Amino acid sequence: MTISTDPSTPAPGPAETGGDLLTAAGARIEEGSFAIIDAEAGSHDYDPAQWTLVRRLIHASGDFDFNGLTRFHPDAIAAGCAALKRGAPIVCDVEMIRAGVSKTRMSPLGVQAHQFIDDPEVIARARAEDTTRATQAMRRAAREGLLEGAVVGIGNAPTALLEVIRLIASEGVRPALVIGMPVGFVAAAESKDLLMRVETVPWIAVRGRKGGSTLVVAALNALMILS
């Protein structure tokens, strides 16, 4: 189904914008931004919950290409929201994501965010095995049992996403949701293409080279608002 947006589309309410965390002036600015995005985005094929997330990617980046580049496994939104409602951990590839996710939104859900890329053990293993720190960080999360049932957010390192895909395929690890949005020129697009072929675990991905930690933060915050 194609959903058309135009200037007459009602502004999103506080539950959709997260306006309960903003001052009145801040909420008006955010609602105005979303109204402009709705007016300028044109038609799209996303359902309302998916559009809530895509609109936040556009809001975070100023880039309307995410209307189209963003792809969803059919169960992605439901799986992500259900996981966050039960307090599942968020596992990130970099500190920027962990620091950026709203603590005010995580706290009522009992959610904690984790990253291991700066861990001395991870760095040592990466050097010893001639891999990236991002690869070893995901292996560390798997050893600690954090990936099982988790919401995984990858916005920086394609090798982290490739390792998560390997763990799913070869070791039976089952995150609740994988948000794959690594940015870059080496293996970024390819890693996301592989993710979009995964059938056993729900995912949200951005096709091509575009992506970034800011987008993953926006996606996670959108899921917590929807939760």
TrEMBL record:
It comes from the Bacteria. Transmembrane segments: none annotated. Residues 29-225 form the Cobalamin biosynthesis precorrin-8X methylmutase CobH/CbiC domain. Gene3D superfamilies: Cobalamin biosynthesis CobH/CbiC, precorrin-8X methylmutase. One of its GO terms (molecular function) is precorrin-8X methylmutase activity. It holds the Pfam family CbiC. One of its GO terms (biological process) is cobalamin biosynthetic process. Keywords: Cobalamin biosynthesis, Isomerase. The keyword rRNA processing does not apply. Pathway: Cofactor biosynthesis; adenosylcobalamin biosynthesis. SUPFAM superfamilies: Precorrin-8X methylmutase CbiC/CobH. PANTHER family: COBALT-PRECORRIN-8 METHYLMUTASE. Belongs to the CobH/CbiC family. This is Precorrin-8X methylmutase.
